[in-house]
Amino acid sequence: DAGVTQSPTHLIKTRGQQVTLRCSPKSGHDTVSWYQQALGQGPQFIFQYYEEEERQRGNFPDRFSGHQFPNYSSELNVNALLLGDSALYLCATSRTGEAKNIQYFGAGTRLSVL
Amino acid sequence: KQEVTQIPAALSVPEGENLVLNCSFTDSAIYNLQWFRQDPGKGLTSLLLIQSSQREQTSGRLNASLDKSSGRSTLYIAASQPGDSATYLCAVASISGSARQLTFGSGTQLTVLP
């Protein structure tokens, strides 16, 4: 049973560019959440997708957008990259309706903006 | 708005020592609380999850407690080993709108000296 997989593992971009990060959920999971973790900080909630729609959003600008596909996989898109967008981006998946609400995390994508 | 604080930010102990990591949260309306381990540059590994109706969970040398009324949790590590060196993150699961999201603390960086 594959766990949560994220791609790519590392990415280097320059200011103003656009980036797309990908996440494949653990088998049986239908909900995908994205988190941004800056160096030395805890992860911060970006948004959550369920049934191909954004269900909730954290305090992030519209430059951050996402998508969920019918197979429950998800993409995170960031436009007009800023230096401050450099971070580890984590994807977490879960199964809606499960009482314990355990979220399983991928290994993350390390984004460096130069 | 839920806020999670972890104390201390960093801790260095000699091998074999028992230690306690602290986590506090501002809103007691939580579903569960989870402790994670994060090695440098890596994703999150779930250590223990305590449901809101529980008071503690144990796994091997780890014991986590939860006091919802006071908004506190502790992670107890017995007989620490150099392999325990990592950053430990506390996260609470709350409802925001229709989504369950995790709010993280900034972590405690633990170093166990041989």
Overall mean pLDDT of chain B stands at 93
Summarize the helix and strand pattern of chain B as letters: EEEEEEEEEEE
**Largest sheet geometry of chain A:** 7 strands, mixed
What is the multimeric organization of the chains shown?
Answer: heterodimer
Order of helices and strands of chain A: EEEEEEEEEEE
Separate helix tally of chain B = 0
What's the number of extended β-strand segments of chain B?
11
Tell me the strand percentage band of chain A.
over 45%
Low-confidence stretches of chain A: none
State the secondary-structure class of chain A.
Answer: mainly beta
- Output the radius of gyration of chain A: 13 Å
Contiguous uncertain segments of 5+ residues of chain B:
none
Instruction: List the total number of helices of chain A.
Output: 0
Shape label of chain B: globular
Task: Please report the two chains with the greatest interface, counting residues with C-beta closer than 8 angstroms to the partner's C-beta.
Answer: A-B, 27 and 28 residues
Question: How many strands appear in the DSSP assignment of chain A?
Answer: 11
Going by helix content, strand content and strand pairing, the class of chain B is: mainly beta
Straight-line distance between termini of chain A: 37 Å
Largest sheet of chain B: 6 strands, mixed
